[in-house]
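Support case: NAP complex. Customer-provided input:
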Amino acid sequence: MKNIGILGAGFMGQAFARLFMQAGYEVMLSNSRSKNSLFSVASSIGCHIGNQTEAIEFGDIVLIAIPFVNYTDLPVTLLKDKLIIDTMNYYPDRDGHFTELDHYQTTTSEMLVKHLGNAKVVKAFNAILAKDIVKDAKPNERVNRRALPLAGDDAVAKQTVSKLIEQCGYDYVDAGNLANGWRFERAKPAYCIPLNREQLLQALDSADRYSELPHNSWKQA
Ligand SMILES: NC(=O)c1ccc[n+]([C@@H]2O[C@H](COP(=O)([O-])OP(=O)(O)OC[C@H]3O[C@@H](n4cnc5c(N)ncnc54)[C@H](OP(=O)(O)O)[C@@H]3O)[C@@H](O)[C@H]2O)c1
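Agent response - structure generated as follows:
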């Protein structure tokens, strides 16, 4: 697997394009507008640009980095057999309210799977701020580097993404199935705070589904 298509070319999409290229992957970025709007960005990063269809067809892996509210826009047929990395988080102030999430009945990635009908969705790379993605990567260090959580229902897909996380310069912690994804979503102790493997295991373990950290406290960590 050498090609990664990225849907969303904002703070996250651009940072991941840089990170994956650094790790030796070919990357195609796309946004909701024309690929021409990404011309300067692509020149600066050195990645390919395409429209959404082209990015999906390009990617052995497709990374989704768009606002959660727009997940139902994602094309079901094109994404049917793809390995998908879901970086989206639910921010009611931005996305509006989703009752099933407000009532802790499901997780964002389970909702994505329901929309796509594709079980090869791995929740990963959502618990790190865009500004830290390239900065915190330590591809040449093995000891005490930052660890990132992931969750998924397809064991093979999860293994592929675990390997990708390591190649990019991070340790990883498998948090279980997508139903466990809430443990490292917004306002939980593992969310967007730099932690090594041991600390991340503790943070995941200490998460309480029904309580949230103060808004944006993770940005001061
Ligand atoms: N920023 C962070 O530090 C951070 C950290 C962890 C997770 N996340 C999550 O990552 C996701 C992206 O965040 P971001 O900060 O990168 O957002 P952003 O800077 O606002 O960028 C959003 C990108 O998504 C594209 N987009 C929007 N709707 C789309 C659609 N229906 N189809 C295809 N592309 C679409 C936009 O394209 P146009 O500009 O053409 O509309 C834009 O390129 C969010 O779910 C966020 O919660 C963000």
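Residues 163 and 172 are 9 Å apart (CA to CA).

Case will auto-close in a few days if no follow-up is received.
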